[in-house]
Amino acid sequence: MKKYNVAILGATGAVGREMLKVLEERQFPMGELRLLASSRSVGKKIPFCGKDYEVQLACADAFEGMDFVLGAASNALAKELAPHIVKAGAVFIDNSSAFRMNDDVPLVVPEINAEDARKNKGIISNPNCSTIITLVAVNAINKLSKIKGMIASTYQATSGAGAAGPVELMDQMKAMVNGGDINVEVFQHQIAANLIPQIGSFGENGYSTEEMKMQNEGRKILHLPELKVTCTCVRVPVVRSHSISVTVVTEDKLTADQVKNAIANEKGCKLYDDGENKIYPMPIVTSDQDLVYVGRIREDLVFDNAITLWCCGDQVRKGAATNAVQIAEVLID
Which pairing describes strands 228-235 and 292-299: parallel, antiparallel, or unpaired? Predict the structure, then answer.
């Protein structure tokens, strides 16, 4: 079997480390592995498949000989290094939002639009984590009847803000129990015992940058340029795994049973819907795995042609690291 040389850009961060974990789990046909990060991390050693690899400096000449570069770095660094990655002949699968809406850059969820990945010009973008989880959940519905619009509320875990997010949550929870001072640094407000209805900055239309991603990225991934989405994104005091409540408006009327059957047979999904036995998706059920769990499926009471559901998925894995590795797998398949 042919082996492929892979670099991880941002290898010391939460998503970069998860990419390594996923590559090992999925037995990706690895040749050379190159771990890249900023100067402050150079020299650190990270284990992979029983061997320690030393972190190297992420710079313009770090990509020679690589087949794939999996990006888990900032928008600024992705933009700075992308031309050098492409020039070196590697495919850059980027988890930042730097290139997502560029017309010549595919935005890919392999279960939905894998064929788009093969049309790349050296850069492929990983979508937003909540967008990935939501679209995997509703893709089966779109196959039954074209989706016209969605009304979504996301409940996003603290780890979506990086490794410091859960640390701040835990520190605040300890302070609440022990009567200490509650420090707020990562989030806009205290997150322990609270909900924060803002992720990203607000635009002129009152929606945040995170909220607009569901519509803008959804249109591109689903090939539905007229798709309309109203979204509210909320940070919740959960460590890992995002949850989304979504009402899906379709051209034709669908029954809940039709949708359940379709989701049960859809790639990347797990039907987890048994209200009588209190079985429905939750963060503690869906963390540290790659499927999107879908439940609470019911016919909507406001729109005639609509289905309402609840889904959960691990945003560090399927919402980021695993999706990127799956894109690489599509290209070597």
Answer: unpaired
